[in-house]
Write a structure and sequence with these properties.
Number of strands: 17
Order of helices and strands: HEEEEEEHEEEEHEHEEHEHEHHEHHE
Helix content: 25-40%
Protein name: Fucosyltransferase
Shape: elongated
Strand order of the largest sheet: 4-3-5-6-7-8
Membrane topology: Single-pass type II membrane protein
Number of domains: 2
Domain Fucosyltransferase C-terminal: 207-385
Number of helices: 10
Oligomer: single chain
Largest sheet: 6 strands, parallel
Domain Fucosyltransferase N-terminal: 74-185
Strand content: 15-25%
Keywords: Glycoprotein, Glycosyltransferase, Golgi apparatus, Membrane, Signal-anchor, Transferase, Transmembrane, Transmembrane helix
Distance between the termini: 74 Å
Structural class: alpha/beta
Radius of gyration: 26 Å
C-alpha cells in the first residue's frame, strides 16, 4: 500500500513538473507577445519548419537600445551550431578580439541558455540542422546564415537551400552582396610611412618549379587535369592528400600553418587552384594566405579574372585564363625564370598595397549596433542568392 501511494505521489510530482515546463516553454512567450502586441507567423510549405513559430513585431519596427549612453552597450552573438566539427574554434563566452579599431563591443557565446538575450543567432550552413532550429525568433534578433563554401559543397553537406527559405534575416559570407561581407582576405592601400607587418618574403632564390598542394580531388577535376598538363611542359611538384604526399602533419594548428607557408615558399610558383569554377567572389586562403604570405607567386584558377581584378591585389598573381593552354602558361613561367626583373615585378605591389584577414566579427558586431536592415527582412530564395557553380 505504501509503495502504491509513493508511486501516485511521484506521478503527481512529475505531472506538475511537466506542466511547469510547458508553461515556461510555451505560455510565457505567448504572454510576452500579448503584452508587446506581437504576433507569430508560420512558414508554409516546409516539411519540418511548420512546427516553428517566429515572433515578429506587427509594426515591423526594431527594438532599439538606449543610445544616450556614452558607449554603446554590448550585444550578444550566439553561435547556435558548431563550426564544421571543430567546436573549440568558435569564440566562446568572452569578449572576442574584435580588433583595435572596432568601435563596438559584443559578447560571443555558444550557450543556448542565452538565446532570449541574444541579438544575433549565427548558423553555420555546413552544420545547421533544420530539425534543430530554435522554436522562437524574437523581434530584436537577427538570424544570420554564415557560409564560406561554394554551393555545390553545401549540397554535399546536406544543406538544401530551399528548405531554409524565409528563415534567415542576414547572410554572412565571401559574397560581396552579403549583409555582412566576410571575405577570406582584403586588400588596402599603404599610406605614408605605414609598414605592413604581414608582407611576404621577396627573396627570389626559390626552386624554378611550381607546387600543387591539393587535399580533395579526383582525376576528373579540371584543376588536377590542368596541373598535370602543365607538368608536361614545366616542373610541377604535387603534394597533398590528393596525390598521396602529405606535409606538415601531426602539428598544432599554428605550427602547421607556418610549416605550410615555409614549404610553399621554397618554390617560385604556387598553383592556387580553387575547388570550383564560376563561383562569383570566391577567392580563398589559397591566394590570400598560401600565395601572398609564403612569398611564392600564385598562379590562380577559379573565379573570373574580372573578380580577381576587383578583389585581389593588382599585379600579384598570374591568372590561367590569360593563356590559351597549359603549354602557353608554361612558356610564360620559363620566360619569367629567364628574366629576374620580370619575375620580381609581380612583387612590386608590396610598396603600394597591404592585405589582411577580414575582421568579420567586428563587421557583424558593428552591424548589430547600427541595425542597417530590419529583423523583418528574410531571404525567400536562398538558392538564388547562393548562385550556381561547378566543382573544379
Amino acid at each position: 500500500m505504501a509503495d502504491k501511494a509513493k508511486r501516485i505521489f511521484l506521478l503527481m510530482i512529475s505531472a506538475v513538473c511537466l506542466f511547469l515546463l510547458w508553461l515556461v516553454g510555451w505560455q510565457l512567450p505567448e504572454f510576452y507577445m500579448r503584452q508587446n502586441k506581437l504576433s507569430t507567423i508560420s512558414i508554409p510549405g516546409h516539411r519540418s519548419v511548420r512546427k516553428h513559430r517566429y515572433i515578429l513585431n506587427k509594426t515591423h519596427s526594431i527594438l532599439q537600445y538606449d543610445t544616450g549612453e556614452p558607449e554603446p552597450p554590448s550585444k550578444t552573438i550566439l553561435f547556435w551550431t558548431t563550426y564544421y566539427s571543430y567546436r573549440k574554434l568558435w569564440p566562446f563566452d568572452k569578449k572576442f578580439p574584435l580588433g583595435p579599431l572596432c568601435p563596438y563591443r559584443c559578447r560571443l557565446t555558444h550557450k543556448k541558455s542565452l538565446y532570449n538575450q541574444s541579438d544575433a543567432v549565427l548558423f553555420h550552413a555546413w552544420t545547421v540542422d533544420i530539425d534543430k532550429l530554435p522554436k522562437w525568433r524574437f523581434p530584436y534578433q537577427q538570424w544570420v546564415l554564415y557560409n564560406q563554401e561554394p554551393p555545390f559543397r553545401l549540397e554535399g553537406a546536406h544543406f538544401h537551400a530551399a528548405d531554409y527559405n524565409g528563415l534567415f534575416n542576414w547572410t554572412m559570407s565571401y559574397k560581396t552582396n552579403s549583409d555582412v561581407y566576410s571575405p577570406y582576405g582584403r586588400r588596402g592601400r599603404i599610406s605614408g610611412n605605414e609598414k605592413e607587418p604581414t608582407q611576404p618574403r621577396t627573396k627570389f632564390d626559390r626552386k624554378p618549379a611550381a607546387v600543387a598542394l591539393i587535399r580533395r580531388c579526383s582525376s576528373t577535376q579540371g584543376r588536377v587535369q590542368f596541373a598535370y598538363e602543365l607538368a608536361e611542359h614545366y616542373p610541377v611538384h604535387f603534394y597533398g592528400r590528393c596525390f598521396g604526399q602529405t606535409i606538415c602533419q601531426d602539428m598544432p594548428r599554428a605550427d602547421a600553418s607556418r610549416c605550410v607557408l615555409d614549404f610553399i615558399g621554397q618554390y617560385k610558383y604556387y598553383l592556387a587552384f580553387e575547388n570550383s569554377v564560376g563561383c562569383s567572389d570566391y577567392i580563398t586562403e589559397k591566394y590570400w594566405v598560401n600565395g601572398l604570405r609564403s612569398g611564392s607567386l600564385p598562379v590562380v584558377m577559379g573565379t573570373s579574372r574580372t573578380d580577381y581584378e576587383r578583389l585581389a591585389i593588382p599585379g600579384s598573381y598570374i591568372h590561367v585564363n590569360d593563356f590559351k593552354s597549359a603549354e602557353a602558361l608554361a612558356a610564360h613561367l620559363r620566360n619569367l625564370d629567364a628574366h629576374a626583373d620580370a619575375y620580381s615585378a609581380y612583387f612590386s605591389w608590396v610598396n603600394k598595397y597591404k592585405y589582411s584577414r577580414n575582421q568579420k566579427w567586428c563587421e557583424l558586431c558593428s552591424q548589430l549596433h547600427e541595425q542597417r536592415s530590419g529583423a523583418t527582412q528574410v531571404y525567400d530564395s536562398l538558392e538564388q542568392w547562393l548562385g550556381d557553380c561547378r566543382a573544379n
